[in-house]
Design goal:
By secondary structure, the chain is α+β, with helices and mostly antiparallel strands. The chain contains four helices and nine strands.
Protein backbone atom coordinates (compact mmCIF):
# COMPACT_ATOMS: atom_id res chain seq x y z
CA UNK A 1 0.00 0.00 0.00
CA UNK A 2 1.26 3.49 -0.82
CA UNK A 3 0.06 7.06 -0.69
CA UNK A 4 -1.58 8.40 -3.87
CA UNK A 5 1.04 10.79 -5.22
CA UNK A 6 -1.44 12.26 -7.75
CA UNK A 7 -4.02 13.32 -5.11
CA UNK A 8 -4.63 17.09 -5.37
CA UNK A 9 -4.05 19.47 -2.44
CA UNK A 10 -4.67 23.20 -2.20
CA UNK A 11 -1.60 25.41 -1.85
CA UNK A 12 -2.19 28.15 0.73
CA UNK A 13 -0.61 31.20 2.32
CA UNK A 14 0.06 31.28 6.08
CA UNK A 15 -3.51 32.49 6.75
CA UNK A 16 -5.02 29.55 4.86
CA UNK A 17 -6.03 31.45 1.72
CA UNK A 18 -5.81 29.22 -1.36
CA UNK A 19 -3.17 30.40 -3.83
CA UNK A 20 -2.94 27.33 -6.09
CA UNK A 21 -2.98 23.54 -6.23
CA UNK A 22 -0.44 20.73 -6.42
CA UNK A 23 -0.29 16.96 -6.19
CA UNK A 24 0.64 15.08 -3.00
CA UNK A 25 3.87 14.07 -4.71
CA UNK A 26 4.74 17.70 -5.48
CA UNK A 27 3.97 18.74 -1.88
CA UNK A 28 6.15 15.98 -0.38
CA UNK A 29 9.16 16.13 -2.71
CA UNK A 30 11.05 18.88 -0.90
CA UNK A 31 9.33 21.72 -2.79
CA UNK A 32 8.05 23.18 0.53
CA UNK A 33 4.72 24.09 -1.08
CA UNK A 34 2.56 25.13 1.90
CA UNK A 35 -0.51 22.86 2.10
CA UNK A 36 -3.20 22.59 4.82
CA UNK A 37 -3.57 19.62 7.14
CA UNK A 38 -5.86 18.84 10.08
CA UNK A 39 -4.95 17.32 13.44
CA UNK A 40 -7.50 16.05 15.96
CA UNK A 41 -6.37 15.08 19.46
CA UNK A 42 -8.91 12.60 20.83
CA UNK A 43 -9.07 12.44 24.62
CA UNK A 44 -11.27 10.13 26.65
CA UNK A 45 -13.07 11.36 29.76
CA UNK A 46 -10.18 9.99 31.89
CA UNK A 47 -7.87 12.53 30.20
CA UNK A 48 -5.90 9.93 28.23
CA UNK A 49 -4.88 10.78 24.66
CA UNK A 50 -5.47 8.38 21.77
CA UNK A 51 -2.46 8.00 19.48
CA UNK A 52 -2.34 6.23 16.14
CA UNK A 53 0.58 4.12 15.01
CA UNK A 54 1.78 4.98 11.52
CA UNK A 55 2.24 1.96 9.25
CA UNK A 56 5.69 1.05 7.93
CA UNK A 57 4.65 1.80 4.32
CA UNK A 58 4.01 5.52 4.97
CA UNK A 59 6.36 7.83 3.06
CA UNK A 60 6.83 10.13 6.08
CA UNK A 61 7.63 8.95 9.66
CA UNK A 62 6.80 5.23 9.22
CA UNK A 63 6.25 3.18 12.38
CA UNK A 64 6.00 6.16 14.76
CA UNK A 65 3.16 7.02 17.15
CA UNK A 66 1.30 10.12 16.04
CA UNK A 67 -1.62 12.48 16.56
CA UNK A 68 -5.00 10.71 16.96
CA UNK A 69 -6.22 11.88 13.56
CA UNK A 70 -4.16 13.69 10.98
CA UNK A 71 -4.70 14.19 7.32
CA UNK A 72 -4.53 16.51 4.38
CA UNK A 73 -7.24 18.93 3.35
CA UNK A 74 -8.18 17.94 -0.20
CA UNK A 75 -8.68 20.48 -2.96
CA UNK A 76 -12.24 21.89 -2.65
CA UNK A 77 -12.65 20.78 0.97
CA UNK A 78 -12.94 22.96 4.10
CA UNK A 79 -10.90 22.32 7.27
CA UNK A 80 -14.07 21.14 9.06
CA UNK A 81 -14.98 18.76 6.22
CA UNK A 82 -11.45 17.32 6.19
CA UNK A 83 -11.47 16.89 9.99
CA UNK A 84 -14.74 14.91 9.94
CA UNK A 85 -13.72 12.87 6.87
CA UNK A 86 -10.32 11.94 8.33
CA UNK A 87 -11.78 11.06 11.77
CA UNK A 88 -14.26 8.75 10.06
CA UNK A 89 -11.66 7.21 7.73
CA UNK A 90 -8.90 6.73 10.30
CA UNK A 91 -10.77 5.93 13.54
CA UNK A 92 -14.37 5.28 12.49
CA UNK A 93 -15.65 8.09 14.74
CA UNK A 94 -18.33 10.69 14.11
CA UNK A 95 -20.62 12.91 16.15
CA UNK A 96 -17.76 14.60 18.02
CA UNK A 97 -17.40 18.32 18.68
CA UNK A 98 -13.95 19.59 17.67
CA UNK A 99 -12.41 22.58 19.44
CA UNK A 100 -9.81 24.55 17.48
CA UNK A 101 -6.61 24.86 19.52
CA UNK A 102 -4.36 26.74 17.10
CA UNK A 103 -2.95 26.82 13.61
CA UNK A 104 0.72 27.06 12.73
CA UNK A 105 3.26 26.30 10.02
CA UNK A 106 5.23 23.07 10.44
CA UNK A 107 8.28 22.53 8.25
CA UNK A 108 10.36 19.37 7.86
CA UNK A 109 13.14 18.62 5.42
CA UNK A 110 10.56 17.33 2.89
CA UNK A 111 7.45 19.44 3.31
CA UNK A 112 5.75 22.49 4.75
CA UNK A 113 2.25 22.24 6.25
CA UNK A 114 -0.29 24.71 7.62
CA UNK A 115 -1.59 22.69 10.57
CA UNK A 116 -5.08 23.28 11.98
CA UNK A 117 -4.96 21.58 15.39
CA UNK A 118 -8.16 20.56 17.23
CA UNK A 119 -9.09 18.51 20.27
CA UNK A 120 -12.19 16.64 21.39
CA UNK A 121 -13.35 14.31 24.16
CA UNK A 122 -14.75 11.05 22.82
CA UNK A 123 -15.70 7.92 24.77
CA UNK A 124 -17.37 5.96 21.98
CA UNK A 125 -15.92 3.01 20.10
CA UNK A 126 -12.76 3.61 18.06
CA UNK A 127 -11.97 1.35 15.12
CA UNK A 128 -8.57 2.14 13.57
CA UNK A 129 -8.67 1.65 9.81
CA UNK A 130 -6.33 -0.49 7.73
CA UNK A 131 -4.64 2.86 6.89
CA UNK A 132 -3.09 2.66 10.38
CA UNK A 133 -1.01 0.13 12.28
CA UNK A 134 -3.39 0.36 15.26
CA UNK A 135 -3.68 2.79 18.13
CA UNK A 136 -4.43 3.15 21.83
CA UNK A 137 -5.11 5.63 24.62
CA UNK A 138 -1.96 6.84 26.41
CA UNK A 139 -1.85 8.36 29.90
CA UNK A 140 -0.22 11.79 29.51
CA UNK A 141 2.58 10.86 31.93
CA UNK A 142 3.52 7.90 29.69
CA UNK A 143 3.71 10.25 26.70
CA UNK A 144 5.91 12.67 28.67
CA UNK A 145 8.24 9.80 29.69
CA UNK A 146 8.73 8.81 26.02
CA UNK A 147 9.34 12.27 24.54
CA UNK A 148 12.66 12.56 22.73
CA UNK A 149 13.11 8.78 22.47
CA UNK A 150 12.19 8.40 18.78
CA UNK A 151 8.79 6.91 19.73
CA UNK A 152 6.63 9.73 18.35
CA UNK A 153 6.65 11.81 15.17
CA UNK A 154 8.50 15.14 15.55
CA UNK A 155 5.31 16.99 14.64
CA UNK A 156 3.33 15.25 17.42
CA UNK A 157 6.10 15.91 19.96
CA UNK A 158 6.19 19.59 19.06
CA UNK A 159 2.41 19.90 19.25
CA UNK A 160 2.21 17.93 22.50
CA UNK A 161 4.86 20.03 24.25
CA UNK A 162 3.70 23.42 22.95
CA UNK A 163 -0.08 23.15 22.59
CA UNK A 164 -1.43 20.22 24.61
CA UNK A 165 0.85 20.51 27.63
CA UNK A 166 0.02 24.22 27.85
CA UNK A 167 -3.72 23.37 27.68
CA UNK A 168 -3.35 20.81 30.48
CA UNK A 169 -1.49 23.30 32.72
CA UNK A 170 -4.19 25.94 32.16
CA UNK A 171 -6.92 23.46 33.19
CA UNK A 172 -5.24 22.70 36.56
Amino acid sequence: MTDNSEEMFPIVDEEGNITGAATRGECHNGSKLLHPVVHLHVFNSKGELYLQKRPEWKDIQPGKWDTSVRGHVDLGESVEMALKREAGEELGISGFTPQLLTHYVFESDREKELVFSHKTVFDGPISPSEELAGGRFWPLDEIRQNLGKNVFTPNFEREFTTVLNQQQQEQK
